[in-house]
Amino acid sequence: MSPLGWSSSVGAVRFAFKTSAQQTSWAAMLKVWRAVDDIEIFESGWTSDHFHPTHSTDPSFHRLEDWVTLTALAQATSRLRMGTLVTGIHYRHPAVPANRVATL
């Protein structure tokens, strides 16, 4: 036990980052993920899967599809774990996200 009463089996603090998949380009997102891949304190990166942009009703406000983006980021980085903070299941057949996850 530590002086504060904590067990010594408590793990180290782990850090993650999140990038928004909307109003960005693949090149910009790739640049961020590759830079963070070189910063050892970050263990994982996250994005979100929203069918429509979350901060605009403008139809030209675009989003990158997150599972395809994560698949591409997985091949472009060497050590980061990754995932989505949100995966929309209410408007997709369950086989669609299952196939995306299996592909990744």
Label this structure with key terms.
alpha/beta; 3 strands; 104 residues; globular; three-stranded parallel sheet; 3 helices
Explain briefly what this protein structure is.
With 104 residues, this protein is of the alpha/beta class. It contains 3 helices and 3 strands, in the order E-H-E-H-E-H.
Any chance you could write out the topology, listing elements then pairs?
Blueprint: E1 15-18, H1 26-37, E2 42-49, H2 66-76, E3 81-87, H3 95-103
Parallel strand pairs: 1-2, 2-3
How would you portray this structure in words?
- This protein is α/β, with parallel strands linked by helices.
- The protein has one domain.
- Strands 1-2-3 form a 3-stranded parallel beta sheet, covered by helices on one side.
- Helix 2 links the parallel strand 2 and strand 3.
- The longest helix is centred in the first third of the chain and has 12 residues.
- The mean pLDDT is 83.
